[in-house]
Structures are given as structure tokens and as C-alpha cells.
Amino acid sequence: MAQITPLHEKIKTPGPTDWLAKHEEPGQTFEEYLKCKPILPDKKRNIIYVSILGDISEDERELILKTVEFIEIYFNLPVKMAREITLEEIPETHRRKSPVDGTLQISTEYIMNEILKKELPKDASVYTAITKIGLWPGEDGWNFVHGMASLYERVAINTFNGYGKAKENGKINNNFFLRILKTSTHEIGHMFSIQHCIKYQCNMCGSNHINETDQKPLWLCPECMAKVCWLTRTIPKDRYKKLMGFCQKYGLTEEYQFYKKSFDTL
Ligand SMILES: [Zn+2]
Ligand SMILES: [Zn+2]
């Protein structure tokens, strides 16, 4: 990975409200990752399951399906849609009004432990849900979270609440699209036991608010990319090529150029 390292920006000093200013993180080197007994896909459990939770619009559904297409490339694993989960399945006791704006939030803890874990398909490597409804971890001290994942229990959830419109005038809203791509793949990375990145500007960096999500790239730093390629038995150059194809197809120009530069450098 040494060749591509110069293409990557070192992590910025966190601003006062940024993730690393609020959370102490140990980081995780590639060697530490290998030693942590990470969750890995295997022959029996190689499918990433994705469920949609709650009502969504047709435009949002379209972009979730494109996100699924991206997840397949990002992790080099097949993705299947699981059954859809309705809001009615979340009891009142695991819902609340956001302390910030009063909108509905549902508990990630409930969804992960009481729904996803109990329905984990036999051939699932991991199982994640995507929702438009706001999320909080189910305990005090949090205003909201974009997503939550278990490092060892193979379940996660993320929300696109507050990400804006999926499409504008019939065209994909790139802000929305990049946000949902980043958060969905970030949480899936956690399910394969990858911890937050504290070295580079990287999609595995923690995010405390939407500006921080916007500032971090869609791509992974050399160290996190090495983890993903190792765990999914992927050749980095093949992965870059497929990521280039996706970004070109959907007009993600900056991301396409970065992946191309990485491809050309390797
Ligand atoms: Zn995270
Ligand atoms: Zn990283």
C-alpha cells in the first residue's frame, strides 16, 4: 500500500464539535486488526443483508438500491435485500422525540438486539438496516446518531435522516447520495470489526455531525483499505477499477478521479 499513501491526506485536527474532540479513540493498525479475531465472511456466511426500515419515497428507494450496488463493490460480497421492517415493530418505549428538534427517533439498541440479531439469516455475513427515521442509541447523553454497528455481533443500522432530498428535478442529489454511500459502508466496515480511523481523512473516521460526514471522503485510507481487501480477499487494483466504474456511471466525478489516480499508481 506504500505507493498510494502519498495520495491520502493525514487526518485534520478536529474542530471543537468534531468526533475526535468528543470521543477518545485508540485507532487500530492493520496488525491489530488481524489480531482482534475480526468477523469475516466465509463460505457459509458470505452475504450482506440489507433491510429498509420504515416508509421511504420512490426516489429514496432508488438511491438505496444504488447504495446496495455500491456496497457489493466496496466489500466484494453479494448483497441481498431482507424483509422490510415497519415502524410499528418498534414499541413506544423504544421511541422518543429528538431533544434537538422534537422529531421521531428510534432506538438503535432495540433494532439491533431485538430485530436484526434475532432474524440474522443463516448465510449472512452481516445484516444492516437503512432508515429515514432519526436514530439514537437508546440511552441518555446522545442527541442523535447517523448509524450504529456492533463490532462483533454482525448487525448495524444507519439513517439518512437530515441528508436532504434524494433527487432534485429528476436528478440524483449528490450530497444525499454521497452521505448515504459513506454512512452505509462505514457501518458495514464496523460489522467486520474495523474500528474508527484516526490517521487519515478516511471513510472509517468517526462523524459527529453532517459537516464532518461531508468532509470525510468516500474512499478508505491505505490502512483501512488493506483491512477491507484482506477480509474480502480482494485485489486492490480490481477493487479500484470497479469503484471507478460505479462513480463514472453515477457522475461522482471527484471520487472517480481519486479512484483512477489510485488505480494508476498501483
Ligand atoms: Zn463509526
Ligand atoms: Zn482509514
Describe the protein in words.
This protein has helices at 19-22, 30-35, 58-75, 108-116, 174-191, 210-215, 222-231, 236-249, 253-265, and strands at residues 47-53, 79-81, 95-97, 104-107, 124-131, 134-136, 147-149, 155-159, 167-168, 171-172. The protein contains nine helices and ten strands. The protein has a five-stranded mixed sheet with strand order 2-1-5-8-7, with helices on both faces. A three-stranded mixed sheet has the order 3-4-6. The protein has 266 residues and is α/β, with parallel strands linked by helices. It has a domain at 39-193: 3-Layer(aba) Sandwich (Collagenase (Catalytic Domain)). The structure holds zinc ion (2 copies). Residues 197, 200, 202, 204, 220-221, 223-224 line the site of one zinc ion.
Structural class of the helix and strand makeup? alpha/beta
In the predicted model, the low-confidence regions spanning at least 5 consecutive residues are none
Q: At the third CATH level, what is the topology name of the domain at 39-193?
A: Collagenase (Catalytic Domain)
Please tell me the overall pLDDT.
Answer: 96
**End-to-end separation:** 8 Å
Report Rg: 18 Å
- The count of DSSP E runs of length 2 or more, i.e. the number of strands, is 10
Question: Quaternary state, please?
Answer: single chain
> In sequence order, what are the helices and strands, one letter per element?
HHEHEEEHEEEEEEHHHHH
CATH homologous group name of the domain at 39-193: Collagenase (Catalytic Domain)
Shape estimate: globular
State the helical fraction.
25-40%
Return the CATH architecture of the domain at 39-193.
3-Layer(aba) Sandwich
Bound molecules: zinc ion
Please work out how many helical segments DSSP would assign.
9
What is the strand content?
15-25%
* Spatial strand arrangement across the major sheet: 2-1-5-8-7
Task: Tell me the name of the CATH class of the domain at 39-193.
Answer: Alpha Beta
